[in-house]
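Input chain follows. Return structure tokens only.
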Amino acid sequence: MDVGQAPTEKRHLPLLTGARGAGARALLPERALDASFRPRFAVWEMTLKCTSRCRHCGSRADEARPDELSLEECLEVADQLADLGVLEVSLIGGEAFLHPAFLDVVRRLWSRGLAVAMATGGVGVDAELARAAREAGLSSVSVSIDGIGRTHDALRGVKQGFERALEAVRHLQAAGIQVGLNSQINRKNLGEVAALGDLCVELGASAWQVALTVAMGNAADRPELLLQPYDLLELMPALALCKRKLDARGIMLYPGNNIGYFGPYESTLRGGSRLGHYGSCGAGRSVIGIESNGDVKGCPSLPSNPYVGGNVRRNPLQEIWERAPALRFARDRGTSDLWGYCASCYYADECRGGCTWTSHTLFGRAGNNPYCHHRVLDFAARGEREVLRQVAPAAGDPFDHGRFELTIERLSDRSAEPTSELSAELLAEQLTEPAQKGTSS
């Protein structure tokens, strides 16, 4: 198995705080159990050990945490996920396959009737691993490709990483595993969106999931890598064009939770969803995330603090899901905690501030998300744009973030900072297309 990796400085990850081992059961709040929501999808970070050194990695994956779950603990978590009613589990890292219990966990989940998927950068996925994973019950894999050729290699910190990711796709497909691609969009690869869509066709991918690079972890150390909100004026029509091309070939394009919202391409991108449009943050509502040391969050992408609701070494997973206040925020969310532009937005009742992960990593609180197509178009119609600038750095820990501030510029007086080229015709098209809200029925 090829697990070669670029040399890097070792990061010493913190141990889970608090009591450990037998007798360390934590007391969760005494309250009526919240059984009205059940997670249907779980994302399980099995290890932070990784074969890539991504410049935009939110968890700063590198070496394994010193307190990652053992084989026995992993199998117990697998059983608890099944008992909780989860239908599909996506195993992530780092690289999930580097955990010694990887194949055992796949087998256990599959034996309990769950669909088992994996997200990977592809470096280290050879034919032997692909066959073993398929035999264990792995049914689908999403391979991260964040650009074409050198762009991908630069973002993921691995020499020949692009070619090795393509090799992984072929090994997985040969083993009978359904393969999709996923990409984080940022200023390094914004100009390659169309090429990435074409690559999905070339590789025979089943799907393509796209999300914005978020100001967390390694990406928080590189604010110049992040899109500015007004870059959505270029990104959104490019994604809509890709969606139409991929639909014609039977390839699904899935916009991530921080792509959107409610602009002229909303029904193009999300028309096939249950609501037909964005439906607010699903963390702790239909999604559950587990970190490799057993910490539980409502979404795997959220900062560990303040969103960890408990640990599987201290409490059963069902008890954490039903009782932990940190997992309830999206269930209870209305519009009262919205602020800034989002507080007075026409779509506030439906959107409720969009992606919690995105806004919290920018401002240290949810409820005001500048990465919104409707919002960007509203500012553009007034001859303005919002600009994000970092005012405090991240500490250097997994899932950490710094702090940003928003300023408003007149388009006629905008600064000379690097920006994507946007034709006047393309902007005019978006401003004249009607926004699409859809229905909630």
